[in-house]
Amino acid sequence: MAALGRASSLLSLLPLLLVPAAGAGGARWRGEGTSPHLRSIFLGRCAEYSSLLSPELRDKNCTAIWEAFKVVLDKDPCSVFPLDYDLFISLSRHSIPRDKSLFWENNHLLVTSYAENARRFMPLCDVLYGRIGDFLSWCRQENASGLDYQSCPTSEDCENNPVDSYWKMASMQYSRDSTGVIHVMLNGSEPKGAYPVKGFFADFEIPYLQKDKITRIEIWVMHEIGRPKVESCGEGSVKILEERLEKMGFQYRCINDHLPVKLLMCVDHSTHPDCALNSTCGCGGSPVLLH
Amino acid sequence: MADHRFRPVSGEKPCCDISKKAQICLCVVFGLLVVVIIAVVVGIVMSRPPPQHQEWKGAGTTAHFYEIILGRCYTYTQIVRPELGHKDCQKIGKAFTNAFLSKDPCSSTEQDYQPLMELTNQTVPCDKTLLWSKTNELVHEYAWVQQELFTLENTLLGYMADGLRWCGDPGSPEMNYQSCPDRRTDCSNNSVSVFWNAVSKRFAEDACGVVHVLLNGSVHNTFDERSTFARVEVFNLHPEKVHTLQAWVMQDIRNISSDSCSDASIKNLKLILSKRNITFTCENNYRPIRFLQCVKYPEHSSCRSKI
């Protein structure tokens, strides 16, 4: 499911002359409909984040943040622009600890596991405006007021849809507020290439990185255990990314299969040959072990 | 005619030698003063703040408690486990607060939580129950990565309440945000402890097949008879449903000592279980979770591999 639109690459505008998307069961749009109880989930997440996860954000007014957000719920679902979230972002933004930013493409679950609920790193989904919207979907009905719970437009339906515009705005802000060492986790087993040249990272994050606040960029190309290594550092789309960063004047380095993340991947593949640990592991049975 | 001036008759001597007019004035002033004093007293009494919440030694109810549990309920039933989408979160939220509002937070009982527990009833598949003791962070990291096993905090009610604090007050319909009873220094039958005992009991009662438990081999009492695991969960496993308890004993990666499974407290656990007709198995440093520990210390010798 992922953060809808977040992982989908921004394909070129599909002209409106296309026949309306035939979603499942004749739904108007291709994407999932508005999440039920959107407001309650929104307010609950906001309250939880600000009081439990980041007590220094206790002054955040979640009701005001919701009021700022919900203006898009009255707009035509194909006419919601990133700037419509301007007030929402300005009320919910907060600083990101130095060296803790983690960008990614095509490995949402791995990133959230590795980030450890913002303790190790703080990817976008662990920032307030990222946490609030994660895995949710929302849009007004096309020709009526009221929310559409059946389906919502994706980028293939129309570019300026509520969810994609949200993530574009959130991504831009996240980039702007990132400082120190910037980390990027890519999936080197993704058949379409580790670095989507048209995607959120490429179009809405890299351009907004603040060069004067960034020391260097570290790219981790992770390969899934037991799956082919489609691309590695210096190859294919990764090379394109490296060249782009170089041209922009960033210091960078690229690492294949960054060890701590690799070890995390091994949790689910502990018996795979690629994950063999040596004998000082202390692992295994004892006289009490019966199987 | 003789000058006969009337002299006041001694019995009718007026008070304080003042004229009648002055007397009236004084009475009026005095009367007004009395009225003012009464008004002030009434005013003070009326505006006095209501009796304060009781004061306890523990931290108060979590800020925005109700919004948090409601939001979590919806997130869980709509996104995490959509097969529970039929659950009524409004009812559940109300049942939760009704369990402790306006009640003595030191006299909480499991009955208080019965309506809440009925509304949040949930089946955990056999072989998927994961208990734990003294491994809070590690066990939940593992459950998150692995996604098939359920700790109590991965069930609806555990998910809603995890990390939160709550208590009420018999003299007030409000939650006490200032303080709540501390288990050790105030009372053990407090709203939060009773809740966790009740839900842990049910979690154990509902388990079936092979039940796993993650224990800490680097602390003194790996199997601690005072822990919720020992007091509540072990004793409420049903032998007709649960045939095996498998323990994974993890040691701190920087300090791998001898075989934790041979530890005296573990032998004690084995004994308790065998009396209940439940098989016990034990594994030191279960590999998948060892990998998880290695993420923090990737350069450590026990984390060296062909990677």
TrEMBL record, chain A:
Keywords, A to Z, come to:
Disulfide bond, Hydrolase, NAD, Signal, Transferase
**What Gene Ontology terms for biological process does this UniProt record contain?**
positive regulation of B cell proliferation
Is Transferase there in the keyword field?
yes
Q: Which class of enzymes does this protein belong to?
A: hydrolase
Return the InterPro entries for the record: ADP-ribosyl_cyclase (IPR003193)
What are the boundaries of the signal sequence?
1-26
A Pfam family hit: Rib_hydrolayse
> What are this entry's molecular-function GO terms?
NAD+ nucleosidase activity, cyclic ADP-ribose generating; phosphorus-oxygen lyase activity; transferase activity
Any Gene Ontology CC annotation: plasma membrane
Q: What is its EC number?
A: 3.2.2.6
The record's comment on protein family reads: Belongs to the ADP-ribosyl cyclase family.
State the protein's name. ADP-ribosyl cyclase/cyclic ADP-ribose hydrolase
Organism the protein comes from = Acinonyx jubatus (Cheetah)
TrEMBL record, chain B:
Pfam families documented for this protein: Rib_hydrolayse
In its UniProt record, a GO molecular function of this protein is: transferase activity
Subcellular location field? Membrane
Gene Ontology BP, a term: positive regulation of B cell proliferation
Q: Which UniProt keywords apply?
A: Disulfide bond, Glycoprotein, Hydrolase, Membrane, NAD, NADP, Signal-anchor, Transferase, Transmembrane, Transmembrane helix
This entry's Enzyme Commission designation comes to: 2.4.99.20, 3.2.2.6
Which domain of life, per UniProt? Eukaryota
Task: Provide the protein name.
Answer: ADP-ribosyl cyclase/cyclic ADP-ribose hydrolase 1
Query: GO cellular-component terms in the record?
Result: plasma membrane
Membrane topology classification: Single-pass type II membrane protein
CDD domains, sorted: Rib_hydrolase
Record-stated family: Belongs to the ADP-ribosyl cyclase family.
Which chain regions cross the lipid bilayer?
24-46
Kindly state which reaction or reactions the protein catalyses: NAD(+) + H2O = ADP-D-ribose + nicotinamide + H(+)
Q: What is the source species?
A: Acinonyx jubatus
Q: Quaternary form? A: Homodimer.
